[in-house]
Specification:
Elements (H helix, E strand, L loop, with lengths): L1 E6 L5 E5 L4 H9 L7 E7 L3 H13 L2 E4 L10 E6 L7 E2 L1 H4 L9 H8 L1 E5 L12 H9 L3 E5 L2 E5 L8 E3 L5 H12 L4 E5 L5 H12 L3 E3 L5 E5 L7 E4 L4 H13 L3 E5 L7 H9 L3 E5 L2 E5 L8 E3 L11 H9 L4 E5 L8 H8 L3 E5 L2 E5 L8 E3 L3 H13 L3 E5 L2 H4 L5 H6 L4 E6 L1
Parallel strand pairs: 2-15, 3-14, 6-7, 10-11, 18-19, 22-23
Antiparallel strand pairs: 1-23, 1-24, 3-5, 4-5, 7-9, 8-9, 11-13, 12-13, 15-17, 16-17, 19-21, 20-21
Bound molecules: ligand EPZ.
The site of ligand EPZ has 21 residues, from helix 1, helix 5, helix 6 and helix 12.
Length: about 425
Amino acid sequence: MEKLVITGGTALHGTIPISGAKNAALPLMCTCLLTEDKVTLENLPRLADITTLTDLLNHLGVTVTIEGGKGGMLAGRSLTFDGHTINDTVAPYDIVRKMRASILVLGPLVARMGEATVSLPGGCAIGNRPIDLHLKALEALGATIEMEQGYVRATAPGGLKGGRVRFPFVSVGATENILMAAALAKGTTTIENAAREPEIVDLAKCLNAMGARITGAGHETITVEGVEKLHGCTHAVMPDRIEAGSYAVAALMTRGDLLLEGAKAEDMQATLDTLTEAGGIVTVEDVGVRVKANGHVQGFNAVTQPFPGFATDMQAQFMALACVADGASVITEAIFENRFMHVSELTRLGANITVKGSTATVRGTKLLRGAPVMATDLRASMGLALAGLVASGETTVNRLYHLDRGYERLEEKLRSVGAKIERVAD
Ligand code: EPZ
């Protein structure tokens, strides 16, 4: 196991290159299951989750080759996914349990092969993460769904048929799964109350480049005209709006000034608005988004919502910011049922946080004191690392594998703008 050792107190100044988005890359990688041609994805981040999904795609019969990496280690990777021969339609528990986004192979597999058996992902630290919406949506397209010994089996021997999918509430993954499945269904599918995240728009862009006929991505209703076959394409993964938002918070927390190179303001407006409410100065430049502190941080309010609202994946990072703001902040987690695990760890650093149901009230304090803390999930660990950047003395963040799932070269990027941070073996 490895841990991060952070010595707080340095204002961060400089430029941080933003990597390709993990939550766009994962569904994009699954599109290779929909075609016999090759799909090349550029700007892929080097992350554990990408490796886990590559292992799963290999298991299903996809061959993955690394294209010559333009720009070397600092640029994103280009990988080519060749799904010409799918020789297995079972996604096994020992892979799926490592990453619940593995469920995104379900829709493409049943659309292309007429069947798919995927281990139930199981819950994770932030909630039990059911997949009922994924399954109901596939049934609306004519799939038969059976559950057997911890696996879900979807079959559509005659292929999927276009239909009407109406989500009772927004689900990013269910929208992605059904969008990919509908691309090869016979007839037209409408997806109502669809997720509007930028990652959905990126996925639709890639699918349309493969010959799909998708309109309305990014809006509440998406229409998909199914086609017989999809062909290959080359697609560059969008920049990671959550990574960019996380470093934007670091700029304000440490009273610094960071240029987030490659970040797109329109993908993270709610994050930028909340940073401005907290006292940050946000400017959009040609090469990215700049966030500058203006001397003090004031308390703010945030309620997590589906896009374009305040992202749940930014909640832990903003809670760290609230810990060092002047005055009180009120943060409500309205998407996941258990996404406050970072609260007890932040309290170990001296934070003053009270939780009532899904709402946390944070009373800012001038001084956080470094201490050993435990990462519990991906974004919680980033919140703890951010707190360590401002706490006096040394903070060690254990169980780094959580962070490595979603942040590429974290300590290098932070060190390059002045942070005192090391990765050491535990
Ligand atoms: C995606 O997860 C992201 N993961 C999550 O990011 C993100 O937090 C989440 O969307 C919300 O934005 C990836 O894109 C790989 P949902 P997903 O389906 O698709 C409930 C990170 O840190 N629900 O939009 O699983 C669910 O339990 C990760 O990068 C059902 O009840 O999220 C949750 O309460 C964490 N039934 C809510 O809906 C279902 O069938 C939203 O979940 C599906 C979801």
